[in-house]
Design a protein that fits this description.
Layout lengths: L3 H60 L4 H13 L21 E5 L5 E3 L19 H10 L3 E9 L2 E14 L6 E7 H52 L2 E2 L11 H88 L4 H77 L5 H71 L8 H69 L2 E2 L1
Parallel strand pairs: 6-7
Antiparallel strand pairs: 1-2, 1-5, 3-4, 4-5
Helix pairs in contact: 1-2, 1-4, 4-5, 5-6, 5-8, 6-7, 7-8
Membrane topology: Multi-pass membrane protein
Organism: Paenisporosarcina cavernae
GO cellular component, one term: plasma membrane
């Protein structure tokens, strides 16, 4: 893997090299083209000057000052020098046409009118190395109003060396000469090669100096980055020991180092806090488990007591039915008394027996009702204690909910810090996410437990209300039974004096009939209340069973929470803290 310093060196070197090469190449090409254009202008001006000179000499010929031959020779001499004995000319033209430049004059048939070494020869069919008829092209350009012709030609001092040559051609209207002048392109743009060397040296020195500066700068930048990399590697291995000194820089790298140091400190503090919370969570879950087990045992005991109350209520219902039947029998006996006034003595004896039996049954019924009242009171107290226990459980569940919310917040903060750590914080982000899920599950379980406890408390409050109603009904039954007992006493007294007060028997029987009707109604109500109490006892028993099941769920949730706390402690233990 390439380092940041290597990448920085490569990129910066490329950024130096590419613009330098572009600038150098463009400068070289521009200078070369400019020199070529200057050379073309120079040879064009030279040809124009030669045409003007011919025109001047023609004027002298027209004036009769010199002959045409003399005029033409003087022009040749000016352009190429005096003709030597061997027919050549020394090319002593005062006009600068470059190192290898010279004038050439043709006629329109391709004969050399003036040439340094080929004067008098016909070169109409001469070709360059590429097969181009260069003389024909020159004559055609001149006839077309003047123009440049380029072709490839060997250098005079080195026949094996071929160069690009350019000639400007124009037609003299006076003598019909095709005047051309030119040279090799190299003669014009030779100075551009020196520019190329200067640019090469400049670029090379710039690259060397730039490379040194870039190397020093890259070291200055990569040194703190490597320190950050080393610290992040330690963090990725859950190693939070040691210290990390912030950089004494005011740029982005300095801010990165300061942020890393702050993140390490915050992460260490967060891990310590998670350790404390996990220990607290484990202890709280154990307490909740113990409380749930205790509440479960109490619920089972209450359910057993309610079951006993229910069984007793069924017995009381049967006894109340018997009492009601007895009361009906008394009523029938009283009606028999009214129907058989003739046999008052016999009816009085029978009535005395029935009254004694009814009195005993009333006493028994009263005792049963007292027993029901006492057991209902006990059941009411047990249900109230159950309500107090459920309130305590609700407080513990609220504590669990608060701990879960705090754990969720800590997990969220841990995930945020892990996200800031980037790629190296992904592992811790997964751990923080799992912690957050566990906290959310704990909070959801606690909320479900809270709802169950709320339902139990509502059921307990309703049960307490029903039990109070039952106690009031039992008290009313006791009062009715006392009245019944008093009625039986009166009947007994009346029966004892029947023989002495026969005339008052009928009135006494009517009174007794009214009293027995009231007693029948009271016994019927008593039986109904006992049945209602029995049904409520069964409802309370079912609620107690539901609470017991809920407490078992609370115990299971607490055990799971304790296991999660242990797992959280194990995860946190993987971090090395200084």
């Amino acid at each position: 893997m390439r380092s940041v310093r290597g990448k920085l060196l490569s990129i910066t070197f490329i950024l130096l090299l590419v613009p330098s090469l572009l600038i150098g190449t463009i400068s070289y090409i521009t200078a070369k083209n400019s020199l070529n254009e200057s050379g073309q202008t120079m040879i064009k001006n030279a040809v124009t000057q030669a045409i003007q000179m011919i025109d001047g000499y023609q004027q002298q010929v027209d004036a009769g000052e010199i002959t045409l031959e003399e005029a033409q020779e003087q022009v040749k001499t000016y352009l190429l020098g005096e003709k030597q004995a061997d027919g050549t000319r020394p090319n002593t033209n005062p006009i600068d046409l470059g190192k290898n430049g010279y004038f050439v004059v043709y006629d329109e048939q391709g004969n050399e009118v003036a040439h340094p070494s080929l004067e008098g020869k016909n070169v109409i069919d001469v070709k360059d190395v590429n097969g181009k008829f260069l003389v024909q092209e020159q004559i055609k350009a001149a006839q077309n109003g003047g123009g440049f012709v380029q072709y490839s030609w060997a250098f005079p001092d080195n026949p094996d060396r071929i160069g690009e040559k350019i000639m400007y051609n124009d037609l003299d209207p006076n003598w019909g000469w095709v005047v051309t002048a030119g040279s090799y392109m190299e003669d014009f743009n030779a100075q551009s090669n020196s520019i190329l060397w200067i640019l090469a040296w400049t670029i090379g020195i710039s690259l060397i100096v730039g490379a040194v500066i870039i190397y020093l700068l890259s070291n200055h930048l990569s040194r703190p980055i490597n320190a950050v990399k080393h610290q992040l590697n330690r963090l990725s291995e859950n190693d939070l020991t040691g210290t990390f000194e912030p950089f004494k820089r005011k740029d982005e790298i300095g801010e990165l180092g300061n942020s890393l140091a702050k993140m390490k400190d915050n992460l260490s503090a967060m891990i310590l806090r998670i350790q404390e919370v996990s220990h607290t969570l484990a202890a709280s879950s154990e307490e909740v488990t113990a409380s749930a087990e205790e509440t479960n045992r109490a619920s089972e005991q209450i359910a057993s007591s309610i079951q006993l109350i229910s069984e007793n209520a069924e017995t009381q219902t049967q006894q109340a039915g018997s009492s009601q039947e007895a009361v009906h029998e008394i009523s029938e006996g009283i009606r028999g008394i009214k129907d058989h006034l003739v046999a008052t003595q016999q009816s009085t004896e029978t009535t005395s027996l029935k009254v004694a039996e009814g009195k005993n049954r009333v006493v028994n019924t009263e005792e049963k009702i007292h027993d029901i009242q006492e057991k209902s009171h006990r059941a009411s107290l047990s249900i109230q204690q159950l309500g107090d226990k459920s309130t305590e459980i609700g407080n513990i569940v609220s504590l669990i909910t608060a701990v879960a919310e705090q754990t969720n917040l800590l997990a969220l903060n841990a995930a945020i810090e892990a996200a800031r750590a980037g790629e190296h914080g992904k592992g811790f982000a997964v751990v923080a996410g799992e912690i957050r899920k566990l906290a959310e599950q704990s909070g959801n379980s606690a909320s479900q437990i809270q709802e169950l406890i709320f339902d139990i408390q509502n059921g307990i409050e309703e049960s307490v209300t029903f039990m109070k109603d039952g106690e009031e009904s039992v008290s009313a039954g006791i009062l009715a039974m006392n009245l019944t007992g008093e009625s039986f006493n009166e009947i007994e007294k009346a029966s004892s004096v029947i023989s002495e007060a026969a005339n008052n028997v009928l009135q006494a029987v009517k009174t007794l009939d009214q009293r027995t009707a009231s007693m029948v109604e009271s016994t019927a109500k008593t039986a109904e209340m006992i049945e209602h109490s029995s049904a409520e006892s069964e409802s309370i028993a079912a609620a107690s069973e539901e609470q017991s099941a809920s407490m078992q769920e609370v115990a299971a949730s607490s055990a799971a929470l304790a296991k999660m706390a242990e797992e959280l402690s194990g995860i946190v233990a993987e971090f090395k803290l200084g």
